[in-house]
Amino acid sequence: MLSEVDLSRTDLNLLVVFEAVMRERHVGRAAENLSLTASAVSHGLKRLRALLGDPLFLKTPRGVVPTERAEQLAPGIADVLARVRGVLASSEPFDPARSRRRFAVGAPDGISSVLLPPLLADLAREAPGVDISIRQVLPKEGEATLPLAWKDSLAALESRAMDVAILPFHEVPVRFMSQNLYVEYFVIAAHAKHPYLRRPGLTQYCAQEHLVVSHAGDPHGFVDSVLAWQGLSRRVALTVPNFMFALAALADTELVAALPRRFVEMHGHRFGIASVAPPFELSPYAVSLVVPNVAMMDAGIAWLVQTLRSVSQQAAA
Q1: Residues in CB range of 295: below 8 A, 6 or more apart
Q2: Does 102-178+288-316 match 186-276 in CATH topology?
Q3: What is the CATH topology of the domain spanning 4-90?
Q4: Residue 317 has pLDDT above 80, yes or no
Q5: Using CA atoms in the order 293, 297, 298, 299, what is the torsion angle rounded to 10 degrees?
Q6: DSSP secondary structure code for residue 139 in this structure
Q7: Which of 107, 110, 213, 251 is deepest in the core (most CB within 10 A)?
Q8: Contact (Cβ atoms closer than 8 angstroms) between residue 233 and residue 260
Q9: Binning pLDDT at 50, 70 and 90, where does residue 207 land?
Q10: What is the distance between the alpha carbons of residues 267 and 111, in angstroms, rounded to a whole number?
Q11: pLDDT digits (tens, 9 = 90+) for 134-154
Q12: pLDDT-based confidence at 232, cuts 50/70/90?
């Protein structure tokens, strides 16, 4: 590893030369890509060889091949250059129309699948170079207290593993900002010709075979708690790990499921799924955007938050 003295005397452009030669496997092509002469690239490699104590690249009739030491160094150098480029990019004013930035958005799939279509349409119009990574987040299994159930998601926000989170939860510590995006309700979903949809009711509902979305396979859902208060129960014949899987399963079976209304309205028609109101009261829940307060100092994050607020209104319309 370089000492502080060595680093202070080192031209980081040498790492750019290394990266280009590593990619092209040819000094001439690397020079062309860098808008340098071949002799300038060769001189840079000579300095880098002296600095690192290795030939790094060996000549062949068709160009050069990296040494074992160069192969070992390549990932670390790529990481250093990516970080430097990220720092320099973040120092420029954020312009969504020109940005090539990638943002990570964490959300359960029942929420992300509702917001993603209008978000992608908005990006295509306003920020065509911006990329999005959707990260599936889930509550901690078996944890009934909401702040503790979503603790891992809050930790991921603080570590910058994701930029924003969209959660069915808003009671966050003061170091976070939480904004309600919309209120979600539940419906009872099944394939469009299911007899229950023609004659819904509490007795008929309990008589059905049910599907529950549970990433851990737990057949006991919130509906079972509501039914238990009334001295009723149901048979959960199938659990699946996500909501899209649920729609596919409902399409090919006689199962019914309690699913988020907006999710079913947006995606159910592709699977031939229809829905009716539940035959008992199911509490709605607020879908909230959560971000660390300090992250809002980043103009890109602030823009993303505003964009998600805007597209959530479209989803709620």
Answers
A1: 157, 160, 163, 164, 301
A2: yes
A3: Arc Repressor Mutant, subunit A (1.10.10)
A4: no
A5: 120
A6: P
A7: 107
A8: no
A9: very high
A10: 12
A11: 999 888 776 656 666 788 888
A12: very high
